[in-house]
Amino acid sequence: MKPQDPFEKIAMPGVKNVIVVASGKGGVGKSTVSANLAVALAREGYKTALFDADLYGPSAPIFFGLQDQKPEVIKEGEHEQIIPIEKYGVKIMSIGFFILSKKSLIWRGPAATAGLVQLLSTTQWGETDFLIIDFPPGTGDIQLTTIQKLNLTGAILVTTPQHIALADAQKAADMFHTPLIQVPVLGVVENMSYFTPTQHPDEKYYLFGQGGGEKLAHQLGVPLLAKIPLVADVCELSDSGKTIFSSADHLIGDQFQQLAQQVS
Ligand code: ADP
């Protein structure tokens, strides 16, 4: 029997660009950036898809208000294909559509990686200009294997301004540059850069310090793509299934639109 090639790429015919959104640790806003970048790219007119690979905390079903949805599975000859669910012009697939949140925690190591690879390769992406992948946080086996198995266009690193988050983000950046793998880091997004009260959009309070995102971008020799403020209603909106973009004039809507223009 032919040994399996660990570097054999997942075939995703029709998908032109694959961008991974990664972070050193959880809770920095990686899923928020992934979801809103995908919606912003769709608004720019690109055929866009989002793959939520954060199997320990899949949030796309919540952010897009799709908790009760189950993707349709169709048979094409011998093979099964899963149809992504479309919302705000984005084709969405999430491990969260298939597993109850508590059960996801027992999925570990090789089983988790195999599950992710299978879901990515059996999803019917069709013609897609940009596939955004929301990675699990950190630098574990799942991330490394997925990087090996995908032809990635680039990676975006999300961090908060604190030093501890920056050290983790640097480690996350390192996993895209190994002797065998070279994935371009497209840039850094600093999230929760400052607090802006919704009623006073001109006021800025730097709760977690300043300059962290710039420092990381400088260290990596990549651009700082965006500085997204901490906004009181983002949490509320995302938890109720309305991403920031459902309110067209939201004060950070423009920032995500500019981010989409920079990466496209
Ligand atoms: P991660 O994917 O890194 O774990 P999430 O995107 O799930 O992080 O964000 C964690 C929590 O913080 C979510 O409840 C989200 O709504 C909230 N959040 C993320 N970015 C912001 C922001 N800029 N302003 C306010 N809340 C935010």
The gist of it:
The protein has helices spanning 30-43, 60-63, 101-104, 109-122, 141-149, 163-174, 212-220, 232-239, 253-263, and strands at residues 15-22, 48-52, 73-76, 79-82, 85-87, 90-94, 128-134, 154-159, 185-196, 224-231.
Sum up the structure in keywords.
binds adenosine-5'-diphosphate; 8-stranded mixed sheet; alpha/beta; about 260 residues; globular; Rossmann fold; two-stranded antiparallel sheet; about 25% strand
Report what the structure shows.
- The protein has a single domain (19-263), classed as Rossmann fold (3-Layer(aba) Sandwich).
- The chain contains 9 helices and 10 strands.
- The chain has 264 residues and is α/β, with parallel strands linked by helices.
- It is globular, with a radius of gyration of 18 Å.
- It has helices at residues 30-43, 60-63, 101-104, 109-122, 141-149, 163-174, 212-220, 232-239, 253-263, and strands spanning 15-22, 48-52, 73-76, 79-82, 85-87, 90-94, 128-134, 154-159, 185-196, 224-231.
- It is 32% helix and 23% strand.
- It has an 8-stranded mixed beta sheet with strand order 5-6-2-7-1-8-9-10, sandwiched between helices.
- Bound molecules: adenosine-5'-diphosphate (ADP).
